[in-house]
Model the fold of this input.
Amino acid sequence: MIEFLVMAFFVAQPMPAAAAPTDGGTPPAADAGSASASPLGPVDLKEPVQITADLIEGGKSQATLTGNVKVTHRTLVLKCDRMTAYFTQPRVVTRVVCTGGVNAVDGDRMARGERAEYDVASGVLVVTGSPEARQGTTYMRGTKVRLTLGSERLDVENAVIIFESPPASPAPSKRKGASTPGRATPAPAEPGKAPAR
Done:
């Protein structure tokens, strides 16, 4: 296996093939402003999967990443201690499995646990290992958390749910008979007489 101490960049869609030479020689030069100017340079993809880590060990169909692992796909940011990425040729990530200190954030939804599996094509993340989840002011824990990208849905099996109320803004207190500083409180009127002004 080859070890790299670099950032890994995998993609969820295949890279476009380089333009074929028209004269049998070298391929035509790409436009300077084109995103695919170099086969090793950035490619304009609709939904890339970006993975970074301290150490990467790779093979033909999978790579193991350790230390400060971070996966970014669409609106999801997934962090963990160790990850195995499964891919097809040419390096199209199909699935990732994370272990240790899993923390996922997608908009206002958060999930964490000890293990997670993320299916790239469907956008489904499943977290296990004492998972916890939060969506807005709702906190949940259970045996399995399922989060789907592009959906507001968050499924928790064997759930314990805590609904938190948003903090209320303190209202000024008004007690009966309390006077406002600097203002006199009128005396109560006697029966049959008009109040004093």
